[in-house]
Amino acid sequence: MRVTEKKKIKVASSEGVRDINRRAVLNLIRTKQPVSRADLARISGLQRSTISLIVEDLIGAHWVLEGPTGRLPRGRRPTFLRLNDDRVIIGVDIRPLQITVALADVNGKFTSQEAMPTSANPKTAIDGVITRIQRLLRSCGGKKVEGIGISVPGRVEPGSGRLVFAPNLKWTDFDIAEAVQKATGFDVEMENAANACVLAAVWFDRVESRNLVVVTVSEGIGAGVLVNGRLARGFSGMAGEFGHVPLDPDGPLCSCGSRGCWEVFASNRAALRYYFESSSQQGLSFQDLLSLADQGDGRAQKALETQAHFLGRGMRMIVAGLDPEQIVIIGDITRSWHRFGPVIQAEVQAQGLSGGVAPKLIPVHEDGMARLRGTVALVLQKHFGVTSEVTA
Question: Most buried of 13, 229, 257, 389, CB within 10 angstroms?
């Protein structure tokens, strides 16, 4: 007879319940500010005495500030609460061509930022990042730095935070997080760029969906996946690498070493390749290509239309595999959504599964800031109780 060991059941302690309530109240203040204690009690369902104790604790810890008083027809005038924007976060957005280092408050408002070219040598690049971080730290005055968030165009190993897959960056065997943490003394949180954009969409843009995919379109194609309110990372941290799924095994060589990946047909670099194949003009950026199309350049319009068709075809994989409610598109292409949107939507709907509902496509006009805002959310998660589950 086989004896099965009984599983130990974890019982929530009073300290655990207080911590959960504290995080819940802090998150409500973040999303509803300015908000009164009475409104917090009404929204949360907690007793007013419990709310008062938690709020006093948050004020004492300098997370929350009391603001102006409100007016009521009768009774005591309520005092409104808001987050203390003297608590700040440093965000680092690493891209193949450019790295941006920025300072933001807890509400995601950026007060300063500095860009630098991305070096092919990771140590040289991160030394430059550290120099800029230290410059920001000197300018903070008495503000409390909560940590450093880093967005990278690749996949990060769960637990260690090491960069394990970044074909467009071409950095190998370099521990970014450890180097920055050792030089600055601050905790460092590192995440894939598309996953950071998921956090930004839910945290700051208030995208109300528990099943969505964020597709980032730039030098490559990235995808961040939210399933049942949880950020999907997969067994080895590689979940969402749709950009490196081959659409044509005989297609152009991809930076990952395979041929015909989705990103070699649908990225910004792909659109430039389509244009250069029909034009002798060289040295254009993707923004230049968009401008040429707006000016009536037929070759530019055709190149962008081809890119849009392949973007839509690749999204069919996402729809068939994940059945998301929404697909959020981030990148320069959203500047010309009138050109891209109808083509992508038609491609997505062309091969819809029987009984399935096509997801809503949402272009986000974020002016290149989604990844940086995601780095802010990445650091703040540990305080607001949304580390394993992202909640709006």
Answer: 229
Domain that holds residue 22: 14-71+78-83
What's the mean pLDDT when you consider all of the chain?
Answer: 86
Q: Is residue 292 part of a domain?
A: yes
Both tokens of 184, joined, read 């600055």
CA distance 189 to 91: 10
Tokens standing for 333?
């292409």
The reported pLDDT for the residue numbered 8 is 39
Q: What is the DSSP letter of 246?
A: B
Tell me, yes or no, whether 214 and 111 share the same domain: no
- Evaluate the CA torsion angle 109, 330, 353, 338 in order and state its sign: positive
Strands (E), the chain: 35-36, 64-69, 79-83, 87-94, 98-105, 110-117, 144-152, 155-156, 163-165, 188-192, 212-217, 221-227, 230-231, 326-331, 360-364
Q: Report the distance separating Cα 112 and Cα 268, nearest Å.
A: 28
- 218, 332 contact by CB (below 8 A): yes
Write the DSSP string, 5-60.
PPPPPPPPPHHHHHHHHHHHHHHHHHHH-SEEHHHHHHHH---HHHHHHHHHHHHH
The pTM (predicted TM-score) of the whole model is 0.84
pLDDT at 188: 94
The first and second tokens of residue 252, run together, are: 């152009």
On the question of a cis peptide bond just before residue 249, with omega within 30 degrees of 0, the verdict is no
